[in-house]
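Pasting two entries for a bug report.
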Amino acid sequence: MHGAGNHSSSGQLVFGNIVFLLLVPFEHVFFITLKWRGGVPLDNPSREAVEPSNRGFTLGVGLFCITLAMYMFFQSALFALEEVIVDGNQYLRVEEIMSLAGIEMGMNLFDINLRTAEERLKADPRVADAHLVRRLPRGIDLKIKERVPVAYLPFERGFAALDVEGRVLSVSEEARLRLPQVDLPDKPSHIAPGTVLSGNALEWQLQIAELLRPDLIGRITQIQQNDGRFDLMLDNRIRVQLGDTAGLAEKLERLRIVLRSIGSDSSVTEIDLRARTPVLR
């Protein structure tokens, strides 16, 4: 991306030159129209005012020339896209965003349909909202709101990244982000981006994953559930027993305190948070 320069003065000069060059071929038309009234010279006092059709023709030619000149001006290289400033992206690269929006560098700024570009972006499940604004003469400001992945669901084709609502944001062969894995007992046969998965157990797992953000989510490798009770597996193989879903936020706050206190103590293999006072084993 490159910064766009100030072309206002040069643009006015080019516009004036274009208008002049386009009007030159019509010089004789204007002269003849004004000089003659239906084939009789204007200096002939016997003729009456210019016929309305001649005046209309002159006006039409003038408007046509001005319109054509303006069109050529706005289609000129002065408005070739050189800079796109994206705000709000954390997971999507600028190149991906531009490709999704159907925007390429060098496109004429006025040929880009901003509403269409916004709709194209919002059609991707990773994008919650998008807004584009032209920045004359050669730029676009693009504000984007992404959906946040909180967990991976393993399945036969790889890993599905899910947001807190169970929406599949992307599918990949590898788990590229440091996110916990969740489980869904009855996985659908077809999992694709945009699919919304549901189930009471999955919903609670995703709620737990959301509560782990932002500091713990990278340390939890798995969120397991069995008969309404939930366990966490840490990256250092410590098992955390959460129990049922009552007081989840408070339990995770106690987990943060415990992890800070034990540091790198490798003798701890289990943290029981089912009671108000944590138990370490």
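Entry 2 (this is the one that rendered wrong in the viewer):
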Amino acid sequence: MIFSKQNFFETSDGTILYYEDYGEGKPILLLHGFCCSSQVFKRNIAGLSQDNRLVLLDLRGHGSSSKTLKDITISRMAKDVKELIEYLHLCDVTLLGWSMGGQVALMYWRKYAGYGYVRRMGILDSTLYPFSEEEWNQHGNRNYNMDKANDRLIHMLEDHEADAYAMVEGMVVEGTCQEDKEWIQKEIMKTPPYIAYSIYTDFLGRDFTEYIPAVMIPILFIGSTSPAVKGELAMDYYVSKCRTSYELVKIGNSGHFFFYFQPERFNKIVLDFIEKYPV
């Protein structure tokens, strides 16, 4: 983690966001998931920035970005991504969204594709419609289960630490060391419950799979398996809706944080994708 004046920028609505910028070359912009931060990608920095420019962003309300109460929505996060791209004068971007970051990436395309900044996209182990009743969706709130969502959010307010640890347990595989689990738990707890509540209720009920057919740039789909996230099953459904070139990678029972625990493997998948689809 780097803290300097250069690591913060102000959005058009006055929110201060934290980002990190490494290396030179064609830019890769990595977006983290719900209640996480850019620091979950710390083991990927060296490999991805060796021959490319790597930009990591803490989405509003997360990590070291402002804990603002303004416009805590996927739509506004997508606008933040656009504004960061313009602030850093990026072009020919590979935009990779992990977990909820996949929703942000697809919303970015829906709203700002015409600017031409993004030339490749990645949907990494994302559940793009957590309320769906269809078989591809194994999310805990499947079949429009808002009661369960509210119960979870109430628990988060009552015992943030316990909720964060339960979240970790659902996303890692058996045998994960305690030190790693506690570190991830602390990153999750950087997002206050009141902000998490707003974000969660914003993206649960929106069907982001409907945005896939409109994407006209190459897409990298990566699916893994963990107790709470069945990404491999979901990816089969997503590619059925894809109307552009794509790569589908299933990495087995590697947990939702596969990029953290298998950084070399993840980095190679990303770099091979970029090489296969040159700008």
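Dev reply: Rendering is fixed now. As a check, the viewer should reflect this: Residues 74-87 form the longest helix (14 residues).
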